[in-house]
Amino acid sequence: MGRKILYNAALNMTVKSSQYKVAIVGGGRQGMALLEALVPPQNSHQYLQVVGVADVNPEAPGLLYAQRHGIFTTERYTELLNLEGVDLIFDAAGQPEVSQELERQRPPQVTVLTGERPYPWDDFWDLIAKGFAPPKTPEPLKVGLVGAGRGGSEVLRLITGDRQHQDRIQILGVADRNPQAPGMAIAQNLGIPTFLNYRELLRQNLDLVMELTGNPKVREELIRIKPATTQVIDHVEARLFYELLRLAEDQFRQKIESEIRLSTQRNRFQRIFDHLPDPVLVLNPDHTVEWVNFTFLHRFQTTEGQVRGQRCYQVLRQLDAPCHQRGLFCPLEEVLEKGTTVQVIHRYPGLDGDIRFDEISMAPLFPREGGTRKRVIEVIKDITAQKRLEEDLQKSEEKAQQLFKQANAGKIFLETILNGIQDNMVVIDADYRIIEVNRAYLEMAGLSRSEVVGKFCYQISHHVDRPCSTPDHPCPLKDALRTGKPASGTHVHYDRQGQERYYHVVCHPLFDETGQATRVVELSQDITKEVMARSRMLHDDKMTSLGKLSASVVHEINNPLTGILTFIKLLQRTLAEGPGQPSGITRISALFRPDGKRDHPGQQDRFQPVGLFQEDPAGIQTGQY
Fold this sequence. Notes:
Mean pLDDT: 78
Oligomer: single chain
CATH class of the largest domain: Alpha Beta
Structural class: alpha/beta
Radius of gyration: 61 Å
Shape: elongated
Number of helices: 22
Largest sheet: 5 strands, parallel
């Protein structure tokens, strides 16, 4: 397959000058391999000159490589067909439709070559050199033709009809299954052996077999059974082979071989050199730039022609004298003298006026014991972003320390205020978990802060396993979160001795950035003494009222008892004087009935209103009772 590329890449150009202009489609690995071998040219007489590169990817390595060397680039491959004087377009894109479109639009003087993929590009140039090597002996190339149809007869006429090729090519036979094929007749007339089976043709010790049937199976069979020293090409390659003969193939091959071999090692180094992420340049002892990589050219927006041979301080810093004469340390002399790597940091104003930082690492390119030629390699690493980040980090750290001090002072101040509050204070979230407490609350509960924070408020304050929800113990936290306003209530909390204490609890809502109440600050004040005093007061009031009621009852009872006692004494005195009258006793009995009730109207012995000073109803004045 490498030999197919060999012939496609070199044999199909029309001779019209000492140079051939080549355009490459595809800036990937294949296109890059061609570019590295041919660009930059090793001398002014190089036969192949690359004049254009196309790739749809503007970041393709081949496209960037061409731009670096001032070669025309485009993202539209058909534009290469319009380049002035282009002789050859090599399709390294690996897409059949690209080759078809190029072939369809190409001008007559332009040849389109296609590289088949995949194949080993690492030894591509070795294959070219091998294929283009001049013959070691003047013996002609021994050729056999398989296929004597229209194409075979045409090739046979072209080769045998030109006398200048008789010493270069010797046709040893023609094979075709059809003995009436036109090429078979031509060969017989020329005295060339003919064969009906191409296997017999392969026994003729051939150097090259031209498969002109166009049948892939025949070509595959030929490749399979051919001797190792015999090469097989198809009908397209056969025409290219013939064109090569017309283009003074010997001289062309020698030029290609020498150019490729001279550039192989340089191109491999340059490929590694260009892919380094940092700008790299090679300096001579007099500060002149000998070599730079593509990263250098890209960063400093220049070309290789503008840099090579110039002083490094002119290119890098736009100075008219070495860096050490302008306040910047230059490690070149130290590296040349000691043969060791030196690293420095340059601080300088950039083109935009901003301060920039470069880390310069310079190392010798010669052995420590010295050498005939001393050079150094310099790697430039832009650390401006790193330095600015360090400065920003330093400023941020200082600011953070200042803010921390302020926050710490504010925290201490806030803690002082909170701990100075004598009432119990606790911050509770919507899930009843305690977030923050003050010292008074911890002293009341007899617990440490770690034992309280994160626990449920009802566990610590009420010694229960569920939120307060009874009618006599409503939870003000719910009301505060629901209404967004302070809510209060009286709760029974347990102190460190486990004794019940009465607290007046007020929950103040705390709002988040969306205005939603998500937490509360609970302030609770011990009102146990007030509650107990109020209870005693109520008890005293009850007892006073009961005393008054008892006094009233006693008064009401004492009045009739006094009267009774008086009458009893009168009765005792009367009885002592003599027997009484029954009628008088009856009247007195009617006045004081045992059931406390008087006779109703209509009953006998009913009281009648009398004048106490007009008559003596009981005979008191007479002393009868």
